[in-house]
Amino acid sequence: MAPAGGAAETVVVDRRGQIPWLAVSPEQKPIASRSAAELRTQRNAVVELLRVAPVADEVARRFEDAGHELYLVGGSVRDALLGRLGTDLDFTTDARPEQVVELLTGWADAIWDTGIEFGTVGATRRGSTLEITTFRADSYDRVTRNPEVVFGDHIDDDLLRRDFTVNAMAVRLPERRFVDPHDGMTALLERRLDTPATPEESFADDPLRMLRAARFVAQLGFRPAQRVVAAMREMADQLDRITAERVQAELSKLLRGPHARQGVELMVDTGLADRVLPEVPAMRLEIDEHHQHKDVYQHSLVVLDQAIELEANDPDQDGPDLVLRMAALLHDIGKPATRKFEAGGGVSFHHHEVVGAKMTRRRLRELRYSKEFVTQVSQLVYLHLRFHGYGTGQWTDSAVRRYVTDAGDLLPRLHKLVRADCTTRNRRKAAALQRSYDELEERIVRIAAEEDLQRVRPDLDGNEIMRLLGLPPGPLVGRAWSHLKELRLERGPLSRDEAEAELREWARSEGLEPPPAP
Description:
Residues 292-435 form the HD/PDEase domain. The chain is of the alpha+beta class.
């Protein structure tokens, strides 16, 4: 393969899936001397490219007939080589955006130009989504977030400005010529992240690329080159130039990755987490030799790992659960603020779940997450410790009802979070905790079957309360409703006569004189 900055390596993939190598320099290896891993990776690309060939070839022919170049590029080529190419395809071309729109009109099922000022035109065709971007040769002032968009004329210039060498490969269509001027294939085989230009240049152009490096570690299990890690440490503060919305998008992708823990560790080790989730590195508490306790940071990483494992073992789970994973990572962030050294060598973290829920809500709002997401994650953080009052089954049925009602739709996630939160190395203690939670889940199922816990409501609704007490709509009706709900949680379902009697008794305690019973 050509060294970084050298002549691009070219490979033609023919219609039968064969890969004859076209030597462009005497240094290139013939196919017979290539490693099994290399050939396997290339075969992945053949299979993937042949799968999307009809759509890719059709659009390429339109560009070729108009005298323009078209390349499958970036993440699409990387994913094809890894055998995981989806239906979202990225292309680059020498055609200008207006020409791209013209070439797609009449062929694409739909076209959108929301990114046209940055040179990108989107389209769909028979279930595939295409993004076609004009060659870029951008310049950055390295103060603001956005580049001065400059269109280029050569594929090599476009590939040089990309974030990582594994994303700086292209396949020219329709002839399927592989272009790899920065040796991205070797980096891919070594699962190594490096930059086409120097990391300092790349990250100065777009600091979000540092967070993207952590995201690729989490998604693909790659390892960043030492020079990349060094630049991330040196330039972490540059991430402050990036909008919260862009940071949030990368963080969410990172946490959805199968190797999310490694991505978080890279963020913490390089100082990126101090700019994005400072509460996470703050969990690395100094351990006092006389007051031993778990390393809260390491414990939280294990909980994240175990939550991901529980997801994988759940047949009803449909993809990564960002709410659960964020809660697993943040569930103990209230501990540093609540740590107290006790006499005799103990350490307490009283009410850390309450403090942690407030901290979680504040941080996720700053990252511009949706109101629903913020509420769900912070509620899981608030509830994660509740189970530890269960002991060996001392809860009454009333306490079980409250547990279910407080969790609401989050109950399946709370089950996973509580189980993931068991990280003790004492096998006997771990087994006892799991047995206790098994018993609690069995009780929840039993009581739910008897009482329909998913729809806990007072035995009388608001209209009935107003009719029985002769009240107009207002706060008193709400207070009466809340009282009946508390009774429902405490005692289970009431008969109609019992509910009405309890309502009248409540009204008298409030100084009201309800109308006579009919």
